Amino acid sequence: MTVLTKLPGFQRSPPGLEWTVLRRLPMVALAATALPIVAVLVASVVLGDDPANAKLVVTIQILLASLLVLLWTAVFTVALLCVIVLIAKGPAYVADAYPLIDFDRPAR
């Protein structure tokens, strides 16, 4: 017997929304990365090197860096969810036989 024996007669579920989401996820990740970076660059250019605005620029950088980490975490979580759905929709496997010690006289 092989390690993974497929259950005979099992029909796989048809592919659904998870494939659409997985195909679009790289573009979403790229956009989620580019938008905060562009916003930091725009804030740096607009506010300039004025010492009065330096604290505001650093605050914006910190805010957008935390937003970037949040977006990456969200993209990773959605990708993980799609992989879990793909695995759940995959083929069913037969469990290994487990010999019972008291199969002839069950304990009470």
Briefly say what this structure is.
With 108 residues, this protein is mostly helical. It contains two helices and no strands.
How would you describe what is shown here?
This protein has a domain at 21-89. Helix content is 62%, strand content 0%. It has helices at residues 17-47, 54-89. Helix 1 runs antiparallel to helix 2 (54-89). The longest helix has 36 residues, at 54-89. The mean pLDDT is 87.
How many helices does DSSP assign? 2
- Helical percentage: 55-70%
Radius of gyration: 26 Å
End-to-end C-alpha gap: 33 Å
Q: Residue ranges: pLDDT <50 for 5 or more in a row?
A: none
Structural class computed from helices and strand pairing: mainly alpha
Task: Let me know the average pLDDT.
Answer: 87
Q: In percent, how much strand structure appears in the residues? A: under 5%
Please describe the biggest sheet, giving its number of strands, its sense, and whether it closes into a barrel. Answer: none
- Helices and strands, in order, run as HH
Beta-strand segment tally? 0
Q: What overall form do the CA principal axes indicate?
A: elongated
